[in-house]
Amino acid sequence: MAHRIDTVEGRSRLKARTPPYWQKLSTGCHIGFRKSKGTDGTWLAQAYDSSTQKQTRQSYGKLDHLPPHQQFDAARKMAEAWFEHLGRGGSTKIITVRTACERYVERLQGAGAMTNAADTEARFKRWVYPDKIGDQALTKLTRKAVEDWRHRLARTPVLTNPHTDRSLTRERSPASLNRDMAALRAALNSAYDNGEATNDSAWRVALRAIENATNRRDTYLDRSQRAALIAKADANLGAFLRCLSLVPLRPGALASLTAGNVNLQLGVLTVGKDKSGRDRKIKLPESTAAVFATLTKDKLPSAPLLARADGRPWDKDAWKAPIKTAAASAGLPDSVTAYTLRHSTITDLVTNGLDLLTVAQLSGTSVAMIEKHYGHHRADHAAKALAGLSL
User: Fold this and answer.
1) How many domains does the chain divide into?
2) Are residues 114 and 61 in the same domain?
3) Does residue 1 sit within a domain?
4) What is the pTM of this model?
5) Is residue 2 part of a domain?
6) Sorting pLDDT into bands at 50, 70 and 90, what band is 64?
7) Does the pLDDT value for residue 164 go beyond 50?
8) Which domain holds residue 61?
Protein backbone atom coordinates (compact mmCIF):
# COMPACT_ATOMS: atom_id res chain seq x y z
CA MET A 1 0.00 0.00 0.00
CA ALA A 2 1.40 3.37 -1.01
CA HIS A 3 1.72 6.02 1.70
CA ARG A 4 1.51 9.70 0.81
CA ILE A 5 3.87 12.06 2.62
CA ASP A 6 3.67 14.90 0.09
CA THR A 7 0.30 16.18 1.37
CA VAL A 8 -0.89 17.19 4.83
CA GLU A 9 -3.89 14.92 4.49
CA GLY A 10 -1.74 11.96 3.48
CA ARG A 11 0.57 12.42 6.48
CA SER A 12 -2.40 12.73 8.85
CA ARG A 13 -3.52 9.22 7.86
CA LEU A 14 -0.18 7.64 8.65
CA LYS A 15 0.36 5.67 11.82
CA ALA A 16 3.01 6.87 14.24
CA ARG A 17 6.06 4.63 14.06
CA THR A 18 9.86 4.67 14.28
CA PRO A 19 10.68 3.57 10.71
CA PRO A 20 10.24 6.47 8.27
CA TYR A 21 7.76 6.47 5.39
CA TRP A 22 9.71 6.91 2.17
CA GLN A 23 8.88 8.51 -1.16
CA LYS A 24 11.14 8.03 -4.17
CA LEU A 25 12.45 11.15 -5.91
CA SER A 26 14.82 9.40 -8.31
CA THR A 27 16.81 6.19 -8.51
CA GLY A 28 18.56 5.69 -5.19
CA CYS A 29 17.23 8.98 -3.80
CA HIS A 30 14.34 9.08 -1.34
CA ILE A 31 12.74 11.60 0.95
CA GLY A 32 11.36 10.31 4.24
CA PHE A 33 8.95 11.27 6.98
CA ARG A 34 9.05 9.74 10.47
CA LYS A 35 5.53 10.10 11.90
CA SER A 36 5.05 11.00 15.55
CA LYS A 37 1.55 12.33 16.22
CA GLY A 38 -1.07 14.19 14.23
CA THR A 39 0.72 15.70 11.26
CA ASP A 40 3.96 16.15 13.23
CA GLY A 41 7.12 14.27 12.38
CA THR A 42 10.70 14.61 11.26
CA TRP A 43 11.96 14.81 7.69
CA LEU A 44 14.86 12.84 6.25
CA ALA A 45 16.67 12.11 3.01
CA GLN A 46 18.28 8.84 2.00
CA ALA A 47 20.78 8.16 -0.77
CA TYR A 48 22.06 4.82 -2.00
CA ASP A 49 25.71 4.50 -2.99
CA SER A 50 26.00 1.67 -5.51
CA SER A 51 29.79 1.54 -5.13
CA THR A 52 29.60 0.73 -1.42
CA GLN A 53 26.05 -0.69 -1.49
CA LYS A 54 25.24 1.40 1.56
CA GLN A 55 22.49 3.87 2.40
CA THR A 56 23.34 7.31 3.72
CA ARG A 57 20.81 9.43 5.56
CA GLN A 58 20.46 13.04 6.53
CA SER A 59 17.90 14.49 8.95
CA TYR A 60 16.21 17.88 8.54
CA GLY A 61 14.22 17.90 11.75
CA LYS A 62 10.55 18.74 12.11
CA LEU A 63 10.57 21.85 9.90
CA ASP A 64 7.76 23.07 12.18
CA HIS A 65 8.83 26.67 11.58
CA LEU A 66 6.96 26.26 8.28
CA PRO A 67 3.23 25.72 7.70
CA PRO A 68 2.46 21.99 7.27
CA HIS A 69 1.58 22.43 3.59
CA GLN A 70 5.08 23.83 2.86
CA GLN A 71 7.14 21.26 4.73
CA PHE A 72 7.34 18.59 2.02
CA ASP A 73 8.51 21.05 -0.63
CA ALA A 74 11.13 22.46 1.76
CA ALA A 75 12.40 18.99 2.66
CA ARG A 76 12.51 17.98 -1.00
CA LYS A 77 14.48 21.09 -1.92
CA MET A 78 17.08 20.38 0.78
CA ALA A 79 17.21 16.70 -0.17
CA GLU A 80 17.74 17.47 -3.84
CA ALA A 81 20.55 19.88 -2.96
CA TRP A 82 22.16 17.12 -0.92
CA PHE A 83 21.73 14.57 -3.69
CA GLU A 84 23.36 17.03 -6.11
CA HIS A 85 26.22 17.49 -3.63
CA LEU A 86 26.76 13.74 -3.53
CA GLY A 87 26.44 13.48 -7.29
CA ARG A 88 29.31 15.93 -7.71
CA GLY A 89 31.52 13.78 -5.56
CA GLY A 90 30.86 15.58 -2.30
CA SER A 91 31.50 13.93 1.02
CA THR A 92 28.65 11.89 2.48
CA LYS A 93 29.54 13.24 5.91
CA ILE A 94 27.97 16.62 6.56
CA ILE A 95 30.24 19.00 8.41
CA THR A 96 29.56 22.36 10.01
CA VAL A 97 31.19 25.68 9.20
CA ARG A 98 33.15 25.34 12.44
CA THR A 99 34.49 21.95 11.41
CA ALA A 100 35.49 23.37 8.04
CA CYS A 101 37.41 26.13 9.83
CA GLU A 102 39.10 23.67 12.18
CA ARG A 103 40.18 21.48 9.26
CA TYR A 104 41.54 24.51 7.42
CA VAL A 105 43.70 25.42 10.41
CA GLU A 106 44.97 21.82 10.50
CA ARG A 107 45.86 22.04 6.80
CA LEU A 108 47.81 25.25 7.39
CA GLN A 109 49.67 23.61 10.24
CA GLY A 110 50.38 20.55 8.09
CA ALA A 111 51.86 22.85 5.43
CA GLY A 112 54.16 24.43 8.00
CA ALA A 113 52.40 27.82 7.97
CA MET A 114 52.28 27.98 11.76
CA THR A 115 52.06 31.76 12.06
CA ASN A 116 49.24 31.97 9.55
CA ALA A 117 47.49 29.06 11.28
CA ALA A 118 47.68 30.72 14.70
CA ASP A 119 46.39 34.06 13.39
CA THR A 120 43.59 32.39 11.44
CA GLU A 121 42.51 30.22 14.37
CA ALA A 122 42.39 33.28 16.63
CA ARG A 123 40.04 35.02 14.18
CA PHE A 124 37.78 31.95 14.04
CA LYS A 125 37.63 31.79 17.83
CA ARG A 126 36.59 35.44 18.00
CA TRP A 127 34.18 35.76 15.12
CA VAL A 128 33.03 32.34 13.83
CA TYR A 129 32.85 29.76 16.60
CA PRO A 130 30.74 31.85 19.04
CA ASP A 131 28.40 32.91 16.21
CA LYS A 132 25.44 30.83 15.07
CA ILE A 133 27.03 30.44 11.64
CA GLY A 134 29.59 28.12 13.23
CA ASP A 135 26.93 25.45 13.82
CA GLN A 136 25.51 25.75 10.31
CA ALA A 137 25.85 22.63 8.16
CA LEU A 138 28.07 23.43 5.22
CA THR A 139 25.73 21.88 2.66
CA LYS A 140 22.83 23.98 4.02
CA LEU A 141 24.75 27.24 4.13
CA THR A 142 22.95 30.02 2.26
CA ARG A 143 24.11 33.33 0.90
CA LYS A 144 21.75 35.13 3.29
CA ALA A 145 23.26 33.35 6.29
CA VAL A 146 26.75 34.40 5.22
CA GLU A 147 25.64 37.97 4.48
CA ASP A 148 23.96 38.17 7.89
CA TRP A 149 27.21 37.03 9.53
CA ARG A 150 29.12 39.65 7.56
CA HIS A 151 26.72 42.37 8.68
CA ARG A 152 26.98 41.27 12.33
CA LEU A 153 30.75 41.33 12.07
CA ALA A 154 30.77 44.78 10.46
CA ARG A 155 28.67 46.15 13.33
CA THR A 156 30.92 44.65 16.02
CA PRO A 157 33.49 47.14 17.35
CA VAL A 158 37.07 46.01 17.90
CA LEU A 159 39.18 46.50 21.00
CA THR A 160 41.64 49.36 20.74
CA ASN A 161 44.09 47.62 23.08
CA PRO A 162 42.93 44.18 24.27
CA HIS A 163 46.01 43.66 26.46
CA THR A 164 45.70 46.78 28.62
CA ASP A 165 42.15 48.09 28.54
CA ARG A 166 39.28 45.99 27.22
CA SER A 167 36.82 48.86 27.66
CA LEU A 168 38.29 50.91 24.82
CA THR A 169 36.83 50.09 21.43
CA ARG A 170 36.68 51.57 17.98
CA GLU A 171 34.45 51.08 14.98
CA ARG A 172 35.55 48.19 12.78
CA SER A 173 37.36 49.47 9.71
CA PRO A 174 36.80 48.05 6.21
CA ALA A 175 40.37 46.72 6.29
CA SER A 176 39.70 44.87 9.55
CA LEU A 177 36.48 43.44 8.12
CA ASN A 178 38.37 42.26 5.02
CA ARG A 179 40.97 40.41 7.10
CA ASP A 180 38.37 38.54 9.16
CA MET A 181 36.26 37.72 6.11
CA ALA A 182 39.34 36.47 4.27
CA ALA A 183 39.97 33.86 6.96
CA LEU A 184 36.46 32.43 6.69
CA ARG A 185 36.48 32.64 2.90
CA ALA A 186 39.74 30.68 2.79
CA ALA A 187 38.34 27.99 5.08
CA LEU A 188 35.18 27.58 3.03
CA ASN A 189 37.13 27.51 -0.23
CA SER A 190 39.38 24.83 1.26
CA ALA A 191 36.31 22.76 2.17
CA TYR A 192 35.03 23.24 -1.38
CA ASP A 193 38.36 22.12 -2.84
CA ASN A 194 38.32 19.00 -0.66
CA GLY A 195 34.80 17.90 -1.60
CA GLU A 196 33.22 18.83 1.72
CA ALA A 197 31.05 21.26 -0.21
CA THR A 198 30.27 21.19 -3.91
CA ASN A 199 28.82 24.67 -4.31
CA ASP A 200 30.47 27.94 -3.29
CA SER A 201 27.58 30.24 -4.21
CA ALA A 202 26.77 30.87 -0.53
CA TRP A 203 30.01 32.77 0.10
CA ARG A 204 31.52 33.57 -3.32
CA VAL A 205 29.86 37.00 -3.43
CA ALA A 206 28.85 37.41 0.21
CA LEU A 207 32.48 37.35 1.39
CA ARG A 208 33.91 39.42 -1.44
CA ALA A 209 36.48 41.87 -0.10
CA ILE A 210 35.81 45.59 0.08
CA GLU A 211 37.97 47.29 -2.52
CA ASN A 212 40.43 50.03 -1.55
CA ALA A 213 39.71 49.30 2.11
CA THR A 214 43.15 50.07 3.52
CA ASN A 215 44.88 53.43 3.73
CA ARG A 216 47.92 52.33 5.70
CA ARG A 217 50.13 52.66 2.60
CA ASP A 218 49.13 56.27 2.01
CA THR A 219 51.60 57.78 4.49
CA TYR A 220 55.18 57.98 3.30
CA LEU A 221 58.14 59.19 5.36
CA ASP A 222 61.35 60.23 3.66
CA ARG A 223 64.72 59.43 5.24
CA SER A 224 64.91 62.65 7.23
CA GLN A 225 61.41 62.12 8.60
CA ARG A 226 62.25 58.56 9.58
CA ALA A 227 65.35 59.81 11.35
CA ALA A 228 63.27 62.41 13.20
CA LEU A 229 60.81 59.73 14.31
CA ILE A 230 63.63 57.52 15.60
CA ALA A 231 65.21 60.45 17.44
CA LYS A 232 61.97 61.18 19.33
CA ALA A 233 61.52 57.56 20.43
CA ASP A 234 63.20 56.01 23.49
CA ALA A 235 66.26 53.84 22.92
CA ASN A 236 64.43 50.50 22.74
CA LEU A 237 61.68 51.70 20.42
CA GLY A 238 64.26 53.66 18.42
CA ALA A 239 66.21 50.48 17.73
CA PHE A 240 63.03 48.77 16.55
CA LEU A 241 62.12 51.68 14.25
CA ARG A 242 65.67 51.90 12.90
CA CYS A 243 65.59 48.25 11.86
CA LEU A 244 62.21 48.78 10.20
CA SER A 245 63.87 51.58 8.22
CA LEU A 246 66.77 49.34 7.15
CA VAL A 247 64.94 46.22 5.96
CA PRO A 248 61.40 46.04 4.47
CA LEU A 249 60.00 43.56 7.00
CA ARG A 250 56.53 43.43 8.44
CA PRO A 251 56.64 44.84 11.98
CA GLY A 252 55.44 41.54 13.44
CA ALA A 253 58.12 39.60 11.59
CA LEU A 254 60.83 41.93 12.87
CA ALA A 255 59.50 41.73 16.43
CA SER A 256 59.67 37.92 16.35
CA LEU A 257 63.36 37.75 15.39
CA THR A 258 65.88 36.34 17.83
CA ALA A 259 69.61 36.87 18.05
CA GLY A 260 70.04 33.48 16.40
CA ASN A 261 68.37 34.79 13.24
CA VAL A 262 71.45 36.92 12.52
CA ASN A 263 74.45 35.13 10.99
CA LEU A 264 77.32 37.46 11.81
CA GLN A 265 79.88 35.58 9.71
CA LEU A 266 77.84 35.68 6.53
CA GLY A 267 75.98 38.91 7.22
CA VAL A 268 72.69 37.15 6.57
CA LEU A 269 69.35 37.72 8.32
CA THR A 270 66.95 34.76 8.41
CA VAL A 271 63.32 35.79 8.67
CA GLY A 272 61.59 32.75 10.10
CA LYS A 273 58.21 34.15 11.07
CA ASP A 274 56.27 36.07 8.49
CA LYS A 275 52.90 36.17 6.78
CA SER A 276 53.99 33.59 4.23
CA GLY A 277 54.93 31.16 6.98
CA ARG A 278 58.21 30.31 5.22
CA ASP A 279 61.81 31.21 6.04
CA ARG A 280 63.69 33.57 3.79
CA LYS A 281 67.23 34.88 3.97
CA ILE A 282 68.32 38.47 3.39
CA LYS A 283 71.93 39.34 2.61
CA LEU A 284 72.66 42.53 4.54
CA PRO A 285 74.99 45.31 3.41
CA GLU A 286 77.93 45.96 5.76
CA SER A 287 76.40 49.01 7.42
CA THR A 288 73.10 47.22 8.12
CA ALA A 289 74.87 44.06 9.25
CA ALA A 290 76.83 46.16 11.75
CA VAL A 291 73.59 47.48 13.24
CA PHE A 292 72.19 43.97 13.65
CA ALA A 293 75.50 42.73 15.06
CA THR A 294 75.28 45.35 17.81
CA LEU A 295 71.80 44.12 18.69
CA THR A 296 73.03 40.53 19.15
CA LYS A 297 75.86 41.46 21.54
CA ASP A 298 75.85 39.40 24.76
CA LYS A 299 72.58 37.68 23.80
CA LEU A 300 71.78 34.00 23.65
CA PRO A 301 70.55 32.79 20.24
CA SER A 302 67.00 32.38 21.62
CA ALA A 303 66.84 35.88 23.09
CA PRO A 304 64.69 38.52 21.33
CA LEU A 305 66.75 40.55 18.89
CA LEU A 306 64.72 43.64 19.78
CA ALA A 307 63.07 44.02 23.15
CA ARG A 308 61.24 46.49 25.32
CA ALA A 309 62.73 47.92 28.51
CA ASP A 310 61.38 44.97 30.48
CA GLY A 311 63.08 42.49 28.16
CA ARG A 312 59.92 41.28 26.46
CA PRO A 313 59.70 41.31 22.63
CA TRP A 314 57.69 44.00 20.91
CA ASP A 315 54.12 43.47 19.74
CA LYS A 316 51.59 45.74 18.05
CA ASP A 317 49.88 46.70 21.31
CA ALA A 318 53.21 47.69 22.85
CA TRP A 319 54.53 49.80 19.98
CA LYS A 320 51.29 51.44 18.83
CA ALA A 321 50.94 54.25 21.41
CA PRO A 322 54.67 55.05 21.73
CA ILE A 323 54.96 55.44 17.95
CA LYS A 324 52.01 57.85 17.95
CA THR A 325 53.70 59.85 20.72
CA ALA A 326 57.04 59.93 18.90
CA ALA A 327 55.37 60.94 15.63
CA ALA A 328 53.56 63.81 17.34
CA SER A 329 56.82 64.99 18.95
CA ALA A 330 58.53 64.88 15.55
CA GLY A 331 55.73 66.87 13.91
CA LEU A 332 54.73 63.95 11.70
CA PRO A 333 51.21 62.99 10.59
CA ASP A 334 48.94 61.20 13.07
CA SER A 335 48.57 58.44 10.46
CA VAL A 336 52.15 57.23 11.06
CA THR A 337 52.32 53.60 12.22
CA ALA A 338 54.94 50.91 12.39
CA TYR A 339 53.75 49.72 9.00
CA THR A 340 54.47 53.21 7.59
CA LEU A 341 58.18 52.44 7.80
CA ARG A 342 57.80 49.20 5.84
CA HIS A 343 55.80 51.08 3.21
CA SER A 344 58.41 53.82 3.08
CA THR A 345 61.36 51.45 2.66
CA ILE A 346 59.58 49.48 -0.08
CA THR A 347 58.74 52.76 -1.83
CA ASP A 348 62.39 53.78 -1.74
CA LEU A 349 63.54 50.44 -3.13
CA VAL A 350 61.11 50.70 -6.04
CA THR A 351 61.82 54.36 -6.84
CA ASN A 352 65.55 53.69 -6.70
CA GLY A 353 65.11 51.25 -9.57
CA LEU A 354 65.33 47.83 -7.85
CA ASP A 355 63.40 45.26 -9.87
CA LEU A 356 60.02 44.26 -8.47
CA LEU A 357 60.91 40.57 -8.12
CA THR A 358 63.81 41.39 -5.80
CA VAL A 359 61.69 43.88 -3.86
CA ALA A 360 59.01 41.21 -3.44
CA GLN A 361 61.56 38.66 -2.23
CA LEU A 362 63.05 41.09 0.29
CA SER A 363 59.59 42.08 1.50
CA GLY A 364 58.19 38.58 1.78
CA THR A 365 55.27 39.21 -0.54
CA SER A 366 54.29 38.57 -4.15
CA VAL A 367 55.31 40.51 -7.23
CA ALA A 368 51.61 41.03 -7.89
CA MET A 369 51.18 42.80 -4.55
CA ILE A 370 54.24 44.99 -5.13
CA GLU A 371 53.00 45.80 -8.63
CA LYS A 372 49.54 46.63 -7.31
CA HIS A 373 50.63 49.01 -4.55
CA TYR A 374 53.98 50.32 -5.80
CA GLY A 375 53.97 49.83 -9.57
CA HIS A 376 53.07 53.47 -10.18
CA HIS A 377 56.43 54.52 -8.70
CA ARG A 378 58.19 52.42 -11.32
CA ALA A 379 56.08 54.10 -14.01
CA ASP A 380 57.13 57.53 -12.72
CA HIS A 381 60.77 56.40 -12.68
CA ALA A 382 60.47 55.19 -16.26
CA ALA A 383 58.87 58.45 -17.34
CA LYS A 384 61.82 60.42 -15.92
CA ALA A 385 64.25 58.11 -17.69
CA LEU A 386 62.42 58.63 -20.98
CA ALA A 387 62.49 62.39 -20.44
CA GLY A 388 66.26 62.15 -20.39
CA LEU A 389 66.19 60.88 -23.97
CA SER A 390 64.70 64.11 -25.29
CA LEU A 391 66.78 65.85 -27.97
Assistant:
1) 3
2) no
3) no
4) 0.53
5) no
6) confident
7) no
8) 8-87
